[in-house]
Amino acid sequence: MEPAAPDVEGGRERKDSFGDLSESGEPPTPSPSPLPTHRRARSLNSITLMRSPAKQPSTIVTRGGASARRARSDERGPGGSPVGRRRSFVEESRDVLRDYAEDVRWSLHEYAGRCGACCRVNTETVVRVRRSLRWYGSAANLSNETMTPETFADTVAIDDKRCDLLDSSRRMNPVDLVWRLDLALTASIVPRVLSTWVARFVLGVYVSAAVLKRGGAVGDKEGDGDSTVVKLSIFVSFIIVFYSNHCYTRFYRQYEAVKICCRTISDVVSTARAYSDAAIPVAEALDDDDVDRPPAGRLPIATAEKLYRYLNAAHCAGYCALTPTYTRKNLFEPFVRRHGLLSAREKRAFSAQKLSTEDASGEAFHEFVLWALAALSAAHQRGEISSPNEMVALQEMVILFRGSMQTLFDERFQEIPFAYSHLVSFVCACYLLVLAVDMGLKFGASSSITAGLFFPCLTVLFTTIVLLGLLTVGKAMSQPTGLDPEGFPIFSYIDSTALASRKILDSHRKAPPDEPDAPPPPKRRSTSNPPPKLRDGAGLA
User: Fold this and answer.
1) Best CA proximity match to 477, nearest among 238, 257, 317, 243
2) Which family does it belong to (predicted)?
3) Which of 56, 148, 436, 537 is most buried, by the most CB atoms less than 10 A from its CB?
4) What pTM was computed for the model?
5) How far apart are CA 286 and CA 307, in angstroms?
6) Cβ within 8 Å of residue 507, ≥6 positions away
């Protein structure tokens, strides 16, 4: 498959990424149009057709062959003959055929433009479809483990695409998605299924069986072949449903562990901030080592700052060790610089231990968790955490964070057993081959094109997309930390957690003090004379 042509704009090669980060750590704004100039000009509804820069003529070719002939006549001498040479009959005929081909080409473009307007398909969608097929075709022989983003900007771009897909799932009704061909051909599972060799082989078997049956090389079927295929379809349906359900269970189990990690970091920072001395500003505690010690039993804000930095660094390092997709170059170091998670002294201490963030054992992750527990222990020994309940609560939350990340490591290590995965794949492939042969044998000599070829082909194509699509989606959901579009937006998780905990840490607002209950209003004494008391049995005169 041909590699994607580099995008050219303004005579320079433009990369499909955000580029390097700015000094503030924010990625620069992406280019408003992801398509190069010569591709943006190829609109199905446009009136002007421009060729690629490598074949750009001196005159823009407008609609029809007459303009092309006029453009070529300008290059000729007087009388329409070329300068210094007589045009032969072959050259004139070639020009006529070229003009005719240009007219046919424009007719097809106009027809495709009308169809595209009805189906909400534009040129950008077509280009995305081609890029998707090219990318999936080139990545068919690569494992999801071996594909890694090169830079931090690529990681952010992949994460943005996943967030866009999640936003589309939240906003759109499943019924409306049926007619969105632009999403079905670019963001769905269809391009990945059609680019696999299994789908192409099944369709090839169907075409071969249909051709042999039509040519008389294959006799009529004996017995009830349709009932056999129906029985096999019921058996395959049970197998594929059980496999998909197991993959979905793994997906949501890992998602729950991911969200526990995010919530636990915010809980630790919130608890430490509530136990700290709110009168000491954050900046003063970080810049001045001689700041007055807070009262006994109050956690200094500098300790809460350490918990924030160590846990967020551990959060990022955990995902770098969890999957080869994220590395020290494309995630950890840029993320640490972005949020200022490690000081110069801590960076030297981390480098001195020669810890690798990509190590599958998660040694860097465990080291940062140990730093957080050591900060709590030192604060307790200095008397800054006087209550044992506060100490135990903070330690339990840090341990819960470590345990949730360890759950992700366990799920990553213990994959679906190979024997079960192979059985499901083998049964589905055999069923598709049997179905392709059975549908192809319906195209006999007396069969019509519609009933004998078209509808059986749709049946084979639809069944192939469903079965292989469920297998592909199930595998992607069982490993949601890779590069699949259905995976977790890891960068959004760790970045939003760091921003939220930073906002909690920088908050200086105190809860309003409890006001004592207002005393009951005093009884008012009457200034008038009290009414006379009546004696028993006496009445008023």
Assistant:
1) 243
2) Belongs to the anion channel-forming bestrophin (TC 1.A.46) family. Calcium-sensitive chloride channel subfamily.
3) 436
4) 0.63
5) 13
6) 273
